[in-house]
């Protein structure tokens, strides 16, 4: 049934639209009437207006804030030239420029770039690539993937299969997805910064600090990982995981030495290591890529979210020359081509905006390396008070990520409304009230976010 013409936007939305992980007809909390910089102009069900900081960076993507002039200019300039052309048999400067930038700013061995529609699609492509790679190498039985519990890699069919089978939000689709192999969750760890936490870093420098981790837990996990991988190596095409920080699986930080173990196992058994850095890449965890924290380079890398600064959907998969050359060979009945080709692959608008976003991120004076340490210091100082609240079991910060974990499932609507009333938009899930602010957030913005989260938890979860 269509909502009456005089109905508010939230009523009209409920009449027709389906939202992420929601029921048909479910009412949303607010309508967005504008977005500029770090702020959202929200309208509530009674027409009341709120100006709130987008503490989620709109699901971790709007790192430069909304409507950044450089991104808007890149978009409009390319739109005036040509908004879209097919990528089969054709190329264009925006795609070539973006590929060159990505190769220049990722591990040296990653030389080939596949431009995808979204993060989930980039994972889909990576998994297909690994299967084709193993088949071309004469290992067609290697058709499963090894990963860890607690992971999340997207909502399309193949990525669902490598998400946590119980907590990965896809348990309803067991008859649709392939059955893969899961190691236990990697042991937790905590990053402890040293020196002046808010000091800008050189773009290629490592942050000062150390990891607090449980060596005994790591040793036990490593023993199990080595034995399990050896037992199943002949059926595994590759290993996929989110480096250091598991996102939608629980915002959980783990020991980076687990990556080192898995890199060694991949080398030992001829497996491809796939790093899903869609959420963690481009400085979010305090390093340009989270896998740098373990000194590990993957064979395949998936990027998204901040790639376009949240201006539009877009992602990329990169792989080594050895992987690309293997898949490109016509051997053992294989086609000699990567079998994927989205209609909007290499969209010129996306490519132009992504290049502009990368230019902002890598600016030596005001890029991520200057912004993220300052945001991290603000989150550590501002969320510390939340640790004293009775309902809070843990507060953790890594880079521009702040997490408040409760002893109960979050009552999402009242916590969200209480935070918005204090000036910050958040979207809690499970037992977590977490934030991933835009990198351009000022110190005052970060303080407002922290006060809103702490105040909302104290008000609702007392």
UniProtKB/TrEMBL annotation:
Pathway: Cofactor biosynthesis; biotin biosynthesis; 7,8-diaminononanoate from 8-amino-7-oxononanoate (SAM route): step 1/1. InterPro entries: Aminotrans_3, Aminotrans_3_PPA_site, BioA, PyrdxlP-dep_Trfase, PyrdxlP-dep_Trfase_major, PyrdxlP-dep_Trfase_small. This is Adenosylmethionine-8-amino-7-oxononanoate aminotransferase. Its EC number is 2.6.1.62. The modification N6-(pyridoxal phosphate)lysine is found at residue 305. It is found in: Cytoplasm. The gene is bioA. It is an enzyme of class 2 (transferase). Catalyzes the transfer of the alpha-amino group from S-adenosyl-L-methionine (SAM) to 7-keto-8-aminopelargonic acid (KAPA) to form 7,8-diaminopelargonic acid (DAPA). It is the only aminotransferase known to utilize SAM as an amino donor. Homodimer. GO terms for molecular function: adenosylmethionine-8-amino-7-oxononanoate transaminase activity. Pfam families: Aminotran_3. PANTHER family: ADENOSYLMETHIONINE-8-AMINO-7-OXONONANOATE AMINOTRANSFERASE. Gene3D superfamilies: Aspartate Aminotransferase, domain 1 (3.90.1150.10), Type I PLP-dependent aspartate aminotransferase-like (Major domain) (3.40.640.10). Belongs to the class-III pyridoxal-phosphate-dependent aminotransferase family. BioA subfamily. Keywords: Aminotransferase, Biotin biosynthesis, Cytoplasm, Pyridoxal phosphate, S-adenosyl-L-methionine, Transferase. Substrate binds at residues 59, 152, 305, 341, 427. Pyridoxal 5'-phosphate binds at residues 119-120, 276, 342-343. The record marks 21 as: Participates in the substrate recognition with KAPA and in a stacking interaction with the adenine ring of SAM. Its cofactor is pyridoxal 5'-phosphate.
